[in-house]
Please model this.
Amino acid sequence: MSNATTAKPANAKKGGFLAGTANYLDERVGMGGILKEFGRKIFPDHWSFMLGEVALYSFLVLVLSGLFLTFFFQPSQVPVIYDGVYGPLKGAEMSIAYKSALDISFEVRGGLLMRELHHWAALLFVAAAGLHMMRVFFTGAFRKPREINWVVGFMLFVLSMAGGFTGYSLPDDLLSGNGLRIIDGMIKGVPVIGAYVSSMLFGGEFPGTHIVARLYGLHILLIPALILVFIAIHLFMVVIHKHAHFSGPGKRDDNVVGYPLMPVYVGKAGGFFFLVFGVLMLVAATVSINPIWLYGSYDPSPVSAGTQPDWYIGWADGALRLAPTHLEVVTGPYTWAWNILLPILVLLVFMALVATYPFFEAWVTGDKREHHVLDRPRNAPVRTGLGAAGMTFYAVLWAAASTDLIATHFHVSVNNVLTSLQISLIVLPVIAFLITKRVCLSLQRKDREIVLHGHESGRIVRMPHGEYIEVHTPADEHELFKLTDFVDYQPTIARPNAQGKITVGARARAAWSRFYFEDRVAPVTAGELAAAHAHHSHDEVEEKPAAKKTTKKLTK
Amino acid sequence: MANKQESHENEHEYSAGLAVVPADKIADPGLEPHRVRMTDKSKKHEKAAASQVATWFLVSIVGSIAAIVFYFVFPISADLNTVRNNTFFVGASIALGMLAIGFGAVHWAKTLMPDAEVAEARHQTRGSEETRARAVEIVNLANQESGFSRRKLIRRSLYGALALFPLPGLVLFKDLTTDANPSETLRHTMWKAGTRLTTDPTGTPIKAADLTLGSVFHVIPEGLNEREDKLEQKAKAAVLLVRLDPADVKSQKELDWGYNGIVAYSKICTHVGCPVALYEQHTHHLLCPCHQSTFDITNDCEVIFGPASHALPQLPITVDAEGYLVAKSDFHEPVGPSFWER
Amino acid sequence: MAFLKNKSMFSRRKPMAAAVVIAAGLLISGGGYAAASGAIKSTQSSTIASAAQIDEGRKLFLSNCASCHGKSAEGTKNGPTLIGVGAAAVDFQVSSGRMPAQASGPQIAAKDPSEFTDAQVAALAAYVATLGPGPSIPSDAAVAADGNATRGGELFRTNCAMCHNAAGAGGALTQGKYAPALTSTPAKEIYEAMATGPQNMPVFNDANLTPKDKKDIITYLVYLQNHPSPAGLDLENLGPVAEGLFVWIFVLGGIIAITVWLGAKSN
Model:
């Protein structure tokens, strides 16, 4: 088209190069069509939507820094005598894996930087993924059509933990080695197959000479491959569904409001990658992480006080610590190690509840519509309360992994800390649920107040007949809509089915719907708003909603 | 920008379930009016923003070059302070290079690129009726042409084949271990009648007289350090050796298996296998640092706190002709964490 | 009487000979003994307490320690007997400020500075040492950090790290007790703690950890004390818990601050 040539007269030469490249690609991969379809895709803008990106970019940093490390790390457990620069280990016997990790740290320029970058990025990857998951949960972004994406995301979270665990066990140091010992002990406790699985994993007795190399294969090949596949599915679904957006004027379930991919998000999201990378690099350059030279090569006899796994495995370690004493049961020739099985079951049940929550909530509400407008957490009080309870449960398990550090830092008895946490595990989530639900309902009521009566302006006016009243500023139309545009559910009763029978499922659904929606605050309707305004003329004084601040005299 | 309001008439009506669909919702006033930025109104501000963005990118260039320079300016040697310097200067410069691009790009997007919100239509994920009908037609055609649902024999034998083909792949992993009876291997350690107790890690034999009240020795069997599978044996054979006042010991069996109040217990925690290495000499408690399982060494090392669920196995000991402590036999039960066949 | 004749002839002919022989005998036996026991006793401090010092120590003891430990250090229900604990125990407990103990609790903490001067501590130690034989204060040579740090590290990890942490950052014991951090503990105190087993710490006598073993351990700990982390801020070497808290609070917190800026509308 002549437009193309006349549009860029100044860069005729450059336009020629760009045009030529574009043409080349269009003729081979249909680049024109791709740009047409995706170039101006709209993405909504909110800071909490970037958390998934933090995880994605951390993963990219992991791949890049990990690549560097694979050129130097040697996953062999053959013993060797150290003769490197770190004085207190000179002459010590250690595995080649440990030695290569020391060499990376002390004899390769930038090696220590890359090791630390890799480890910090791993911690951030899981943290960001977890926080992202919480954002998705509390805004109801897992509702139809995104239930499958929730499960994909859950799988990514589990894979990220597996990646982290296999990774920090590679240097074969005392701290991570004791972590492997604990995993081995847990596996051994599994009924029937425990001793076999343990022997298969370690290639014989613990610690064996195979585990580091096997974990290496998992860590650099299988787990990253699975993560990449799941990320691809995860992002593909975001493209199909388009990103959800918060409620607000102009935002509906059948549109998406935001900014176009090119150029705004290329700028913002592209820039954000460099920001995340930069922050991680700054931390890697200044703060120590995993100083393996202080721990020594793994040996089953020594152990360090304050033996904890990386933070994202903390909840599992905490679950082990919280198990009550004397839980083992011996029936005949067989031992049921309930002190291990119970924590494992607790973790598995928790993960199952998290993974299946969207399906459960969909069953309760029966709402089969697509939802693209996000919930404000206060507008789903029971869901938010359950989320708070779940987070509290996880947090207590996580805290339980550091009972000894809590004891030394706050000068309390580690025994008392443990007992308190055992009680907290049961009690605190319930309290968290109740408090959160009540807070949500109160916030909803406050929203109703604002819609009906406006914001308190803080100005007190004395009426001619002596009464003092406070002036309210009515909410403008945009705020009115935002505060009333949420989904409101009602509980149901159990109804007979086609055969005239009330099934257990129907009864259960009715009971759950009562649990969820019995206490509800409905959005203000237009009729209610009009009625409220009609009452105002003799009770209150209102100012006209001002777009700019003006000092308008009041009408009496 | 005009909202492309395409008709949604052909879209499927979903049940709203328990949702209350309000009849008179407060009306949607449409997108808020765009608030003009300083950089939209004033050429001066726009120019300033543009030069700020460019400055960020220049700072990034400085950072990246600095990183390369520092890599060579700070070589590393046996002095670990050089490692510290290299790590810090190279890392901080790279960080500056990265962060500056990021700040520049985001600042560019925020101040100079249009920030008027744009709306795009969302269509139902569900296909239209025609699409779905065509999809069903295609599947039916494939079924018809292959005869999949018709031909029971083919279908069922296919299921069988698909179910079985992965199984050899699973069996291939059997030689991940060559131990035919792992639970049996867990029952025995290196300790035998007459094996001397030696200090960990040096391997020096221990005389009974070496132990005083309140002392603890970390013990490995004699000959452990020469073995090829040193760590595997140590993971079962590590022992804690303590002298107690016999008056303090509550269990006769403990005294019988010991020697004049000197007792030896497995150091491998019966919870999940960490070394139970902490000994409190006055309270006579053994504490495992991993999950705080606590054992009472005056009472058969019974568990008195924490998630462990059975006592530490005791190693029966005596002295040999020269006064060195030796084992009387192996442990009488498997050491370490519980397992199914225990 | 030939031998009597010989003897009188001997003493008449060389009057100083007897003295020389006796002196030589004394020198040889005494010097030999001193040389032999020098090897054994080289770990001990060479200062010999004077009577005045012991008396000073007794006076200090009666006014500061006897109320809990008894007038003759025989022990009361408030404090154990000090008979046989040795000068090393007193030097450790008093110069680290643990003694005199103030509050009773699960464990008595070190106080800095100690209530007593070095001379007073030495006097107390000298006095208690007279009450019964026990470990004596190590010599400067015994605690000098010129041993083998590698060997020391291995011994430390096997015997000490389970309570004090692999980097000497300290750790928890049961019921509110704890093993203190060793990041600024003087070498002499480390030696004395190993030798005397204060509070619930086990006793590491010379058969368990020989003086050379103890010196190696001290060498390793002094290395840790003198060498900051080559990797930057070390977060007190508390391990993954500190690192996890750091990433959630500072790294993720900082990044969220950036995202809020990123998503906010520009002016």
About this structure: The mean pLDDT of chain C is 85. The longest strand of chain C covers residues 171-172.
